[in-house]
Amino acid sequence: MKPFLSLEHVGVVFPADDGELEAVADVTFSVRQQEFVALVGPSGCGKSTLVRVVAGLLRPTRGRVLFPALGGGKPRVGLVFQKANLMPWRTVEANISLPLELQGLPKAEIRRRVAEMITLMGLQGFEKALPRDLSGGMAQRVALARSFVFNPSLLLLDEPFVALDALTREYLWDELLRMWRRERQTVLMVTHSVSEALLLADRVIVLTARPARVKLQLTVDIPRPRHPDLRYTPRFGELVRRLRAALEIPNLAKAAET
Ligand SMILES: Nc1ncnc2c1ncn2[C@@H]1O[C@H](COP(=O)(O)OP(=O)(O)OP(=O)(O)O)[C@@H](O)[C@H]1O
Ligand SMILES: [Mg+2]
User: Fold this and answer.
1) pTM of full prediction above 0.85
2) Is residue 128, in this structure, part of any structural domain at all?
3) For residue 101, what is the domain's CATH number?
4) Is residue 228 part of a domain?
5) Which ligand sits nearest to residue 14's alpha carbon?
6) Residues 126-144: pLDDT tens digits?
7) Which of 46, 78, 102, 242 is in the most buried spot, having the most CB atoms within 10 Å?
8) Whole-angstrom distance, CA of residue 253 vs CA of residue 256
């Protein structure tokens, strides 16, 4: 079967004060339809840059991004970043409905889909709230709802849970996986958490320090559903060790705990 997404020798060079900054050296990988892939790599190695390239927001300096399974077409992309980036003057439901309004869907259809998403993401009672009255976890839940509501076929998540406390993060993992099981979008998620990658993804791609290249691709052969307590099993520990070795994280580094 043709891959859903293919990156072929993607390289990105930015102009810098003293010449050029090579963010991405040469990245080649592909993602199957409905696959959940996590992208990990040292800070500043070019992960967000790659997300922008895949989203079509940034043109790569070298190489190309293809969607072979779509036969020349482009996917509908849902994007979620570290910060929720909600529109401060719009209520929760008006933030979620925005992509549908932009598509020009009929009002009744928009109302139905927004109401369904509010229920799915556990946002009942907050429909009329403004972003400033939401907790960080709630705001991120609205951002996820806004990206799910228009049935994207590709979900690009750039460290969507990094600013949240551990408990909220685990709730949102659950919600993300529930949505993914239901809709089966293809997912590419950047994270710097090795455990998060192993609990959520089918496959983890490790990048080198900047400029990014693919260092390791690891299939996560742990059956689903994966309870967070799996983190304390020997098999999980073994996969963590392999990823940490690829990331060159020293043994006692704080990064290990994230
Ligand atoms: N628009 C830009 N212009 C110039 N340099 C940029 C631009 N965007 C990113 N960079 C540089 O490219 C490199 C990679 O940045 P990027 O944000 O992709 O890294 P990252 O892996 O997402 O980092 P982090 O883990 O901290 O989020 C960095 O050195 C950054 O300063
Ligand atoms: Mg980043």
Assistant:
1) yes
2) yes
3) 3.40.50.300
4) no
5) 1
6) 999 999 999 999 999 999 9
7) 46
8) 6
